[in-house]
Design brief:
Length: about 280
């Protein structure tokens, strides 16, 4: 019995030492990622400051996931600024002041100040590890997200479009499904959006979509006439609302600072979107 107790005690001591030996690895990885992101951001901002487009593109290509790179382009069109830094340009002090800290899980926060007297800009971002083991940024909280972060923001169930019940339900479920497609940021995002338009928009509306994009492609190449914007961000989802108008075939769709008038058409007992107009 005494031998058994000694064996149990030894096993307990060995287990405790093993746990202690392993436990620092996560913080160590976190610190390495902090240094990596800080250095990468400083190099990127230096490239912006010196107008080194080649290094800028290298940063975007190497550090962002392909899906985040596409979203960055959409956000840049929507804000007329660089969402990676929440600004159009940087200063030498900006570069020197860059810091990065681990928030929790796969979330980190980059911060900097343009000048010593300025307030600090905080940019939460989410990282992922690709198939080659490379750390990449998979999401950057835009300016309107302030310092919010966390995977729970993305825990949005996929909405099934209900086109046979009533107009309001159809508009609500269509726009939630369309927004969800943007928020998921899947590799086939464009195909998913196109499928929704082809399924739930009239041929005339689909033609208008193509025409409207061509009209603004030079100054706003990412514009999506269905949402009246260049992107639909996760931090806008909770603000998405649909309201009826005096015309039973028209509804007002609003989210964040955007408002749309959506006109429906009923075909064979099923609703389709016949027109979308941006309300100034």
């Amino acid at each position: 019995m005494q031998v058994l107790r000694i064996l149990v005690l030894l096993l307990s001591l060995l287990t405790t030492r093993a746990v202690k030996a392993l436990s620092p690895s996560a913080p160590s990885d976190g610190r390495q990622i902090e240094k990596y992101l800080q250095k990468s951001y400083q190099e990127y901002m230096e490239a912006i400051n010196t107008d080194d487009r080649k290094t800028e593109e290298k940063f975007l290509q190497n550090l962002l996931t392909p899906e985040m790179k596409e979203k960055r382009a959409r956000l840049a069109c929507a804000t007329d600024s660089d969402p990676m830094i929440r600004a159009q340009d940087v200063t030498e002090y900006s570069i020197q002041s860059v810091r990065c800290r681990h928030l929790c899980g796969c979330w980190y926060e980059v911060s900097y100040r343009p000048y010593p007297q300025d307030s600090t800009t905080y940019i939460p971002l989410r990282i992922t590890t690709d198939s080659l083991g490379k750390t990449r940024i998979s999401y950057v909280t835009p300016d309107w997200g302030n310092r919010n972060y966390g995977d729970y923001w993305f825990d949005i169930p996929e909405e099934k479009v209900i086109d046979h019940q009533d107009g309001k339900t159809f508009v609500e479920t269509f726009y939630k499904s369309y927004a969800h497609t943007y928020i998921k940021m899947e590799p086939d995002l464009e195909q998913g959006l196109k499928h929704l338009r082809e399924t739930y928009c009239t041929p005339a509306m689909q033609e208008k979509y193509v025409r409207s994009k061509k009209e603004v492609e030079l100054e706003d190449p990412m514009f999506d006439p269905v949402i009246g914007n260049d992107d639909f961000d996760v931090f806008w989802y909770s603000s998405l609302q649909v309201h009826p108008t005096k015309n039973k075939e028209c509804f007002t769709v609003s989210y964040s600072y955007t408002k749309l008038q959506v006109t429906l058409q009923c075909q064979d007992g099923k609703y389709k979107i016949a027109d979308v107009e941006l309300i100034p």
